[in-house]
Design a protein that fits this description.
The chain has about 290 residues and is of the alpha/beta class. The chain has one domain: Spore Coat Polysaccharide Biosynthesis Protein SpsA, Chain A. Helices cover about 20% and strands about 25% of the residues. It contains six helices and 14 strands. Strands 1, 2, 3, 4, 5, 6, 8, 12 and 14 form a nine-stranded mixed β-sheet that branches. It has a three-stranded antiparallel β-sheet with strand order 9-10-11, with no helix packed on it. The protein has a two-stranded antiparallel sheet with strand order 7-13.
Length: about 290
């Protein structure tokens, strides 16, 4: 069994991505790691080249700045990397996602178990979405609780954006992949970076989402303006590879007690109550759970 990993990254340093930690977190279990590195304004490329591993293969890319349709440029970059993978499995990880060292053998074991199972096309992970600091994660229908991050490299798949895959059957109509649950975790740190870095990220990416490039219209990020009901205290252990990167604040993140709930937040509160009462999930899924 050969395992490929892949990702794409641009301006990872100035935008506050733990991209080196992300790569290193799964490097031990993969046979190759394909990285599409977009032309950056920082040392992203140089830092990746400094990783001491002959498993890494870099593809230098130029992003299509004329593509403004709903983040499709992310799907393009994802596919550039995936189409260069040669393994039986393709393990996709984003630049702000990290895997715990305790889960590596479980993940590799799942790939071995389902390698020849034709009914399983992809593998599913549970998620921690950290917010504000390293001690707080989000539990809300606004945030996906599970997502596919590994797919068989022998099926016809493509990514309409960076988040998920569609599988093309004979009729070429896209559908979500059939997935088995690994029960391993992805630690997502995108909302742990500083507010200044988040503001810069929004400025850099808004043009790829069919938005006017008017920076004066962008509201500055204020992490405290969030519904405190979705904040949860994290009592586990973070992956060792990311501990030096994490902020050192203690305790759960404190939201603004005077925060006015948006209509979207009110809707999510209602869905949370329904989940608790019914035991059903009202969160969007980009897969069909098989096992």
């Amino acid at each position: 069994m050969k395992i490929s990993a892949f990702t794409f990254i641009k301006n990872g340093e100035i935008l506050g991505y733990p991209f080196i930690e992300s790569i290193n977190s799964i490097l031990p279990i993969v046979d190759e790691f394909v990285i599409a590195v977009g032309k950056s304004e920082d040392s992203t490329l140089e830092r990746i080249k400094e990783i001491p591993s002959d498993k890494i293969r870099i593809i230098e890319t130029t992003w299509n700045d004329n593509m403004h349709d709903r983040g499709y440029v992310y799907g393009q970059q994802k596919m550039i990397a995936q189409f260069n993978c040669t393994g039986d499995w393709a393990f996709y990880i984003e630049g702000d996602e990290v895997v715990h060292e305790d889960d590596l053998l479980t993940i590799k074991g799942a790939m071995q178990t389902y390698l020849h199972d034709e009914n399983v096309e992809a593998l599913l992970f549970d998620y921690y979405h950290f917010y504000g600091n390293a001690n707080t994660y989000l539990d809300s229908p606004a945030w996906y609780k599970t997502e596919v991050r590994i797919i068989k490299n022998s099926i016809r798949s493509y990514a309409p954006d960076g988040l998920y895959w569609l599988v093309l059957d004979k009729n070429k109509v896209g559908r979500y992949p059939k997935a088995a649950h690994t029960y391993a975790k992805i630690y997502h740190y995108g909302w742990v970076r500083s507010e200044k870095q988040m503001d810069l990220k929004i400025q850099k990416v808004q043009g790829y989402w069919n938005k006017e490039n008017d920076l004066s219209s962008i509201a500055q990020v204020d992490y405290r303006e969030i519904d405190s009901a979705v904040l949860r205290l994290f009592e586990g252990e973070h992956p060792k590879v990311v501990k030096d990167w994490l902020p050192k604040e203690q305790g759960i993140f404190v939201a603004n007690p005077a925060h006015q709930l948006t209509q979207r937040e009110k809707k999510h509160r209602l869905l949370m109550r329904m989940e608790k009462l019914t035991g059903s999930s009202y969160r969007r899924k980009h897969f069909r759970l098989i096992k």
